[in-house]
Amino acid sequence: MPRTTPRRRAPVALALAGGGPLGAIYEIGALNALAESLDGLDLNAMDHYVGVSAGAFITAGLANGITPSQLSRMFIAGDSARVPLDPERFLMPAYRELLGRAWRAPALAAAGMATWVGSAGRRSWAESFAPLTRLLPTGLLDSRMIAGFLSQAFEAHGGTDDFRQLKSKLYLIATDLDTGHATAFGTEGNDHVPISQAIQASAAVPGLFAPVKIDGRWFVDGALKKTLHASVALHAGAELVICVNPLVPFDAARAADAGRPGSRHLIEGGLPTVLGQTFRTLIHSRMEVGMARYEREFPKADIVLFEPDHADADMFFTNVFSYASRQRLCEHAYQQTRQALLRRRAELEPQLGRHGITLRLDVLQDPNRRLKPAMATLRRGRHEGLAGTALDLQDTLDRLESQLRRHAVQHGTR
Predict the structure, then answer these.
(1) Which of 12, 66, 190, 370 has its CA 20 to 30 A from that of 254?
(2) How far is CA 100 from CA 94, 95, 96, 134, 136, in A?
(3) pLDDT of amino acid 409
(4) Are the CB atoms for 250 and 228 separated by under 8 Å?
(5) Which residues make Cβ contacts (< 8 Å) with residue 122, sequence separation at least 6?
């Protein structure tokens, strides 16, 4: 009987939106659910990855062979045996930025005084001293430590900080501050930039992190231009794009009607809640416009979006700075994504089936299934040697599972 060559599958892509720490936690939980529940899909062997802000962290890890389970131990539990996560790395004040601007204070104050006195009352005090606003820092936190941690994490997992050495195409989106245009690091001409620095730029939330200088240009958060940037993968030839967007506007009225915790009126939460809802509404509205455009411009492509329920109070009110809250929210995202896969079965099976991907109903219908334990208690216990050995073993098993999944995808009937 003649040997048959498996039909080459069409290119598939993963696009992850931003959303800060909360978004990263949701994406990690959702990706763990997708990895376990979709047969014929290897999240570490996609053809294209597109990451924006927090999504840039996750996609770069996946492209470097770090499994969703390993990501959960690194970023959620902080129990990775190879690269322990120190949260203080992400909260380092931007001392250089603050001191540099403070150094200019005397000269600017003197210039303002001279302008005010010289105008003989024709200029107001506020107008004369307006240049003092230049002393305000462009960011409160220094993101250079983040880039260093990521570079270390890639190396520890046998990966690379070089776009050109990856097996898959990785695109990390940042916004050029001086033009307002989006830049896709990883594309030709922009692939010489270290991956860790591109992530640093993509996640530079204005006001929180200082803009990042790359090749003489200053970059900030990639979400300023678009929410998902999935079109980068579609233009590159992807015929299936799996998208994850972690931030949606909260429907307090529907949540209250369903008996879920939280107030019916968000104004009771004060300014942070009002600003959070405003930001979510703006970026989600923009994403909806983008998704409709993708369907018009790429009618032959399948675009599958996963995001939280709009009445999900956990995704709106969770304290992401608590380890317990992070683990609970990651588990919550994992379970919610499993439920979404089952609920959308009639829609998803034909879409994914066109690309040789099937739903694992045995996994999805298992009521007792939980995320793999992060083994945080082992690391905090007295048997440090045992904890390290167990975590190393778990990392090895994760890599083996990823290799087996990749082999099945490459030699299947897709």
Answers:
(1) 370
(2) 10, 8, 6, 11, 11
(3) 46
(4) no
(5) none
Structure token digits, residue 199:
């992530």
Nearest to 50 by CA among 182, 170, 162, 193: 170
**Secondary structure class of 351 (helix, strand, coil):** helix
Q: Which long-range contacts (CB under 8 A, 24 or more apart) does 82-86 make?
A: 82/153, 82/156, 82/157, 82/395, 83/149, 83/152, 83/153, 83/156, 83/157, 85/149
Low-confidence ranges of the chain (pLDDT < 70): 1-8, 77-91, 94-95, 97-105, 107-137, 260-263, 320-323, 372-414
Instruction: State how far the alpha carbon of 199 is from the alpha carbons of 21, 161, 186, 219, 352, in Å.
Output: 14, 11, 11, 11, 30
Model confidence, pTM: 0.82
* Helical H segments across 318-380, by residue range: 323-343, 345-353, 361-364, 376-380
The two structure tokens encoding residue 179? 């033009």
User: Which residue is it, tokens 């830049």?
Assistant: 183
Q: Which residue reads 């002393």 in tokens?
A: 135
